[in-house]
Amino acid sequence: MKQKMIGVIGGGQCSSDVENLAEEVGSLIAQREGILICGGLSGVMEAACRGAKKSNGTTIGVLPGDRKSDANPFIDIPIVTAMADARNIIIVRSSDAVIAIDGKYGTLSEISFCLAYNVPVIGLKTWNVDPGIIGANSAKDAVNKAFELAAN
Amino acid sequence: MKQKMIGVIGGGQCSSDVENLAEEVGSLIAQREGILICGGLSGVMEAACRGAKKSNGTTIGVLPGDRKSDANPFIDIPIVTAMADARNIIIVRSSDAVIAIDGKYGTLSEISFCLAYNVPVIGLKTWNVDPGIIGANSAKDAVNKAFELAAN
Amino acid sequence: MKQKMIGVIGGGQCSSDVENLAEEVGSLIAQREGILICGGLSGVMEAACRGAKKSNGTTIGVLPGDRKSDANPFIDIPIVTAMADARNIIIVRSSDAVIAIDGKYGTLSEISFCLAYNVPVIGLKTWNVDPGIIGANSAKDAVNKAFELAAN
Amino acid sequence: MKQKMIGVIGGGQCSSDVENLAEEVGSLIAQREGILICGGLSGVMEAACRGAKKSNGTTIGVLPGDRKSDANPFIDIPIVTAMADARNIIIVRSSDAVIAIDGKYGTLSEISFCLAYNVPVIGLKTWNVDPGIIGANSAKDAVNKAFELAAN
To answer: Which one of A98, A108, A126, A130 makes the best mutation probe of the B interface by having the most chain B beta carbons within 10 Å?
Structure first.
């Protein structure tokens, strides 16, 4: 059976509280044997990848720039797009479910694409602008919902 | 002096009220000698282009598919991307200001990119999710604000 | 009737001979009332656009970067992609016929896409790697062939 | 140490001889503990992935369409772009070295991008249009050269 691919989206800068939350999300995705896919940079992305690697998971970073070296140190598989935010769409389309944590306008664009493509999107301390965004009250709750809803 | 490029975004399907509003917006953009740039398809996009052509304006359609024939009949210059919604980003980045009318998740993604890139975005009966979206109460008000705010 | 869109592709750096050839091509496209579409930068692209503007034509630059100011001074309509060479595909797909002048690997990629998508491609002092590339012996010959072959 | 990512490019349709060659290439990449990255579809891509999976390797398919189900059955990690051939660029940019096998215009575009971005490209029964394409006389020779030249 294929491993589920779980997207983690959120800002490139975040508070330490949000970082802790993202790290826990990443760790739990790995424990459930999901592959973590994200934008490959800092902030929420890096924290989630750090968590995933602590739990021996696999991480994919879909990078906006043109160099593998832009990836945070916890990315196993860097995908280099050189397409700036067009890579946001690739993250969403490649995910079986997405967990949005905090984040600003880039994250809002990704949430929009989840809603447009019917990719389940679970929100943690993030944009609450549409009933299609599934609320979660903890990292564990978010990851549970993501795996439940991930396309089969 | 370069003509201003004004983006018009909104859904591929809309009510006749919204259609009338979009047509008026398109007509006013043309009267102000702006170039109208949009996604090139039906609904809000087609209505705005019809308005622009009635006022002898120029229209650009940045198409998601791989055929020029996907363009609505009021597009002068079809730009064929074959990149699905990645074309949303191109519309935003090419606009000096954007007018959002009605619309659903695709429109929300475009509004997000406007906010991310500091492209002025004026909202007419659309997503009201961030103070960065500039409200307007009529087509005329929206077009006035768009030209005022368009980058020089 | 729609104006034909003629792509001009070639390197961002070139000799003065090639520049003269490109300028003549641009001028002739404008005289035939075609719209010139190109990558919007320097070298062959800028020379062709200069020629088109001297003959009162219209020029579109599909830019790889994220700023309108990257466009050469002869671009009327800058399309901003921020997608690096993915914009090469957009130039090809939006053209009714393409004229390739000189150029290196980026130009070879564009010629490949012309051949892949059955967009007529006329070669002037450029890659001669496939019988699908239509030879031309002068700017005039190239432009004549481009308009003959442009999709109706 | 990071696993090398080796791109395999070639047509979606091919002869059984080419298929055998691609399968051997894929198998050898996996034996050397490289990750195989390709366009995810049929022909050369599928044969190479089948070879990689026989040798317990990991395979990534960067898909042009909008559905994971377009991937051939030997893809472990489908990356869904919905960007048609713009995905060719992503394959090249994400590869530490590329092996081109047979192929037509899409393959030529990918070879062009390898040459443009200085990604080492090894050719097996493919386009021989530039001295930058490194010749190989067998699957083994190609894979050896790919790993030697892969960026560190």
So the answer is: A108
